[in-house]
Amino acid sequence: MDALLPRPRTVVAPGAVHVPGWLSTEDQRRLVEACREWATGPVPMRHTRLPRGGVMSVRTVCLGWHWKPYAYTRTADDVNGARVAPFPAWLTEWGRRALADAYEDPAAGVGYAPDTALINFYDAAAKMGMHQDKDERSSAPVVSLTVGDSCVFRFGNTETRTRPWTDVELASGDLFVFGGESRWAYHGVPKVHPGTAPATLDLTGRLNLTLRETGLPS
Ligand SMILES: O=C(O)CCC(=O)C(=O)O
Ligand SMILES: [Fe+2]
To answer: Could you tell me which residue ranges the Fe2OG dioxygenase domain spans (predicted)?
Structure first.
């Protein structure tokens, strides 16, 4: 839903920026359509199995590189062994534009070369515990895009998974970037707000994409 007053761009921590309503309605629709395709294969979206036997409550599919705890590979050896779908050039462009806009610096996106995207689908009950994105060897920023239901995104600190943290409401179309001093900060999603997706998206649940540079040899 469009807010009566535009929600402002907010610097949550050094290098961590929330840009509400960054994606147009058309771009949100395009992203949902693309995610529907990617969810079907070559590697189907699934609940990631954790080494200790649990499964994540979100469902995930990856582009470029496949992530499973706690490494990137080209093939999804814990799913069907297939090579993941390629990382599309248009998402690289979105990533570069995202950095320029988040950091209000046209140079900030120059040379950004994300080579993996993790696409997480949250149903009404899904959450993500506090963690660092630390399987990448590159310290380039993570670009996070949300479409569908809004959620509470908890952005913490680089030292511990506990407080201090800031709870940010991420709504459909919002951009969140964490780089620089915040690149290795703990973060998580304690709650999704079911039924809050814009009706025009025809989406039940929340999709989040994180674009990252793995730093791995291509
Ligand atoms: O869903 C989100 O907003 C965050 C996802 C996330 O932290 C991750 O995929 O590592
Ligand atoms: Fe993460």
So the answer is: 113-215
If phi over 0 gives left and psi between -120 and 50 gives alpha, with beta otherwise, what is residue 80? Answer: alpha
Q: Is the CB of 208 under 6 A from ligand 1?
A: yes
Q: Which two tokens stand for residue 89?
A: 């050039």
Residue 218 lies in a domain: no
Q: Which atom of ligand 1 is nearest to the CA of 151?
A: 3
CB 13 within 8 A of CB 185: yes
CA–centroid distance, 24 to ligand 2, in Å, is: 24
Q: What pLDDT does 2 receive?
A: 58
Give the H/E segment covering residue 35. helix 25-40
ipTM value, please give it: 0.99
178, 187, 192, 211, best to mutate for ligand 1 pocket (most atoms within 8 Å of CB):
187
| pLDDT attached to residue 86 | 98
Nearest CA, atom 1, ligand 1: 208
Name the domain count of the chain: 1
In a domain, 217, yes or no: no
**What pLDDT, on a 0 to 100 scale, did the predictor assign at position 218?**
85
Q: HSE on the CB side for 43, CA within 13 Å? A: 29
| Structure confidence by residue, pLDDT tens digits, 131-150 | 999 999 999 999 999 999 99
Domain containing residue 165: 10-212
Is 59's C-beta closer than 6 angstroms to any atom of ligand 1?
no
For the chain, list residues with pLDDT below 70.
Answer: 1-3
pLDDT value, residue 138? 98
